[in-house]
């Protein structure tokens, strides 16, 4: 049964840590900064540069301009860098080219909490964080020596046989196998099916899926229209409506699968609020009276990762433990590329930049077999 839907406001994600905490915006005084200015309040003392100071309210607004996940990662990276600088008698802002090169060398030789050396991308992010802080302070950091050191570290990792960790794409057959391993007659099964099919059909990021509300899904004569309030490539939160047409098979049709989940929610008196919700081990919605566990209603990005991984494990897929919510996004894009969809259409649907190397990677994955030069040579 198709359930009519009404829009509702999206409360948005909870704010993360302030990624600007400790940023010093006034010009560097002689001798450097003695300590970061955590409050960044206007300095009204004689000689104070009031026009270059930020109030706490303004700094909070600027901090909110970062994506939530980026803000949390940058806050950790900046805290680690300033602590290292304090230990080694160096200035974090303005940092010299030598300081950045030394820090990259330090990171590339320091094991993580897992006991392994960091991935080059982790060091890259830390360096990007430092450069971003300098840009916000109205200056630049000379990162050329640091990037040469990072290039040498990438080569070292490559020579050691290390590869970038990527979640495997859940292509169409893998999606069908995961759906077959769910229990459609249960509340958790209906929820899992909706999450899996939506993630694939939307080519959705886990943050986008977690943020969806029931009111963001509208039924039309052609299918579903799903409103994405904000995404990684929409930092100004202008929003975008993504159309999802009816599928050819009932078990993978995004319209039928999502509407079945919405109907199950409506039967339990839930017609507004988060679309993807927790279900306890007794089959009750989290937050409902008598439900076990935490009262958190909305599924988190981490929860969606676990949902996909558990579905892959139940289905017995190869490498099931490495699956994540991103597997659905990658699977949808790869399937579209194999079906001959143009790059522009895939990029628009999945909310990538058309020049993104990521989306072109999915095209190459499809083309490497279809256009393989060794095909038909007579081997």
What keywords describe this structure?
379 residues; mainly alpha; DNA polymerase, domain 1; hpI Integrase, Chain A; 2 domains; three-stranded antiparallel sheet; 13 helices; 3 strands; globular; disordered N terminus
Any overview of this molecule?
The chain is mainly α. The protein has two domains: 50-159, DNA polymerase, domain 1 (Orthogonal Bundle); 172-370, Intergrase catalytic core (hpI Integrase, Chain A, Orthogonal Bundle). Helix content is 45%, strand content 4%. A hairpin with a 3-residue loop joins strand 1 (217-219) and strand 2. Helix 6 crosses helix 10 and helix 10 packs across helix 11 (325-338). The longest helix is centred in the first third of the chain and has 21 residues, at 68-88. Residues 1-47 have low confidence and may be disordered.
Question: Topology, please?
Answer:
Elements: H1 56-64, H2 68-88, H3 97-108, H4 120-136, H5 144-159, H6 172-180, H7 187-202, H8 206-211, E1 217-219, E2 223-228, E3 240-245, H9 254-267, H10 301-315, H11 325-338, H12 343-350, H13 357-370
Antiparallel strand pairs: 1-2, 2-3
Helix pairs in contact: 2-4, 3-5, 4-5, 6-10, 7-9, 7-11, 10-11, 11-13
